[in-house]
Amino acid sequence: MTTRSDKETLLLNSDIQFNSLLEIIESVASRKRSMSITTQERDKNFRDVLMHLYEWHSMLERWYREGMDGDMPFMPAPGYKWRTIKLLNLQIWGNYQDVTVHQAIRKVKLSHERVMNVIRLHTDEEIMTKKYYKWTKTSNLYSYFAANTFSHYIWAIKQCEVIARSLKEEETNKLGK
User: Is 52 helix (H, G, I), strand (E, B) or coil?
Assistant: First the structure.
């Protein structure tokens, strides 16, 4: 029996969670996938959740590219600090209100695959060793990759389960009337 490396486990967990997320969305009738639910939460539909993931993938790609070029990337984004992350996430939400759910699915699939390809470029040592790269400061690549892949997908799954359940209940209620 072979043991999976940390890199292999990261890739596998990321793909499993990502596919689970897509399955939740696909469990809803295609005509209803773009509908919003009534909630106090920021994300009211699948598009909102998917574009949130897409934008965080994009930020990770920027951090990675700038860091590997020898720069110290501004994190999380120019004009924002970690303590103002709610404002950043609201800005992300606002930026993508004109995107369709179909476009969002396509974009997040592509960005997920780009991030997976970046992970594949590295050895376990490069991924797991703290301070291996100057730009990760006291951390390692794993923490950046995990936060923007499987950990973020677990959050997204929970959000999409609420949306899917609400959309399905609404359908059931309409049929019952």
Answer: helix
